[in-house]
Amino acid sequence: MCTPRYFLVLFWMLSACYGCMEAKKSKDHEMAEKAIVSQTSEPVRSNRPAQMTENNPYFHATGSTPQWSLNISQTGIELTTKQDTIYTPHVQPDRAMDANVKRYRVITESTELIIEINQSAFSSDSDKMYPYKVTIRYRATENPDFTNFEGCGSYILDYRLHDIWVLESLNGKGIAVPEGRELPHMEINRESNEFLGTTSCNQMRGKLFFEPELLRFTDVITTRKMCPGPLEAEFLKALQSTIHYTLGENRLRLSNPNGVEMVFKKVD
Fold first, then answer.
1. CB–CB of 88/77 below 8 Å?
2. How many C-beta neighbours within 10 Å does residue 2 have?
3. Per the confidence metrics, is the pTM higher than 0.85?
4. How far apart are CA 206 and CA 221, in angstroms?
5. Burial (0-12, 13-18, 19+ Cβ within 10 Å), 145
6. What confidence score (pLDDT) does residue 126 get?
7. Which ranges carry the DUF306 domain (predicted)?
8. pLDDT tens column, 165-176
9. Rounded CA gap, 196 and 222, in Å?
10. Average per-residue pLDDT in the chain?
11. pLDDT higher than 50, residue 96
């Protein structure tokens, strides 16, 4: 038989257990509230312009003595060193008349930045060859002395070109091919700066030279099957004379100074 003392002990134990549970709930609730406050009351601060995260860079360069990296997009220029990261607005570069040399010069209230991109084969410390040599001069406006950087870089192919394109028209005329033949088409690979496809008769492949709004198809090689009709010759001549490109409405338009235009349609 249970005694009154037994019930008192049992009641005390249950009360203590309930108190611990309530204390734990209160603590857990307090921690959850703190977590919510920490996530919402003070956002992460960054000096990076919003556009820089939305726009892909079209040029990237690096160097190792001292270590640095450079990204140029249509909305800004980003220079990262071991000590700092500098963001400036984008500016149009000056181009040398007698060589493929571009110079960006940016002057803001806090920064002066001069970037020179010189098209010449340049080896990095990893012995990888890059098509451009890059020199940079940077200083904070309160500092009279420039810091100099040197390295190598390359243009990054427009991500919108990375797809399969089928020829839709050449010089304003639609494309007709004999029964059993494919329409001329090509697949552009952004990672390797290469393309491959068919002229409708022969297989083809080659390399791409890219700068903003500038696109050239180089080192084109094809198989050597005899092809009736003028389409292949006209197609290859127009492709290899291409200088400019535009994109829109799932179409890739290629042209040259003579006005030759090729229109490709993107296929999934």
1. yes
2. 7
3. no
4. 6
5. exposed
6. 58
7. 163-264
8. 999 999 999 998
9. 10
10. 81
11. yes
